């Protein structure tokens, strides 16, 4: 076979291959500047739960004012039943956390020094009807948006035990499942007192500690 013919045939094959590659790259994949042209990634985050219970800065003190012996007073803003010498407001509790919470309370020191009985100092919780408070619904046990009133919450006056030295105050359950949404995260704490017949004169006070706990810890 003629050597020049063979060399010419090989040259033709090489040129044809170059042209084919050029066409494939620039016409079939005209926008490719690198491989791959698209990929995906993931962003992950885990928001941790946090309990946060706060007392409203306006409704944070129950003040019964001047009171008389052997009389009963309460702070119920919904339906006050007992004598209140001044406009007495309850304590307004708010859930500032990002999860529902149960509320426990305890009285840190004895309120009376006379011959008091357990029913002379009682507490309950209720839907707030204070100026600016949340609208929790119309019925505390059946239509309540803020907390579970039908079970686990103390919605009728119940004795709040005083500590006896040297024992610390005992937490008692007050609210079950207080919600954390901004429009339904409030509850009011009411106190009812009966003044012992032999109570000495003078100012009386006690500190109530309010604690938020994980809902699973209270049945």
Question: Key terms for this structure?
Answer:
219 residues, alpha+beta, three-stranded antiparallel sheet, 11 strands
Written account of the structure:
It contains one helix and eleven strands. It has one helix at residues 3-28, and strands at residues 53-55, 72-74, 91-95, 101-107, 121-126, 137-139, 143-144, 158-159, 172-178, 186-194, 208-213. It has one domain (53-217). It is 12% helix and 24% strand. Strands 1, 2, 3, 5, 8 and 10 form a six-stranded antiparallel β-sheet that branches. It has a three-stranded antiparallel β-sheet with strand order 9-4-11, with no helix packed on it. A two-stranded antiparallel ribbon has the order 6-7. The model has no long low-confidence stretch (mean pLDDT 79). The protein is α+β, with helices and mostly antiparallel strands and 219 residues long. β6 (137-139) and β7 (143-144) form a beta hairpin.
What proportion strand?
15-25%
Rg over C-alpha atoms, rounded to the nearest angstrom: 37 Å
Helical segment count: 1
Helical coverage, percent range: 10-25%
Q: What integer is the average pLDDT?
A: 79
Largest sheet: 6 strands, antiparallel
Q: Catalogue the unreliable spans.
A: none
Domain unit count? 1
The sequence of SSEs as H and E is: HEEEEEEEEEEE
Structural class: alpha+beta
Cα end-to-end separation: 101 Å
What general outline do the C-alpha atoms trace? elongated
E-strand count: 11
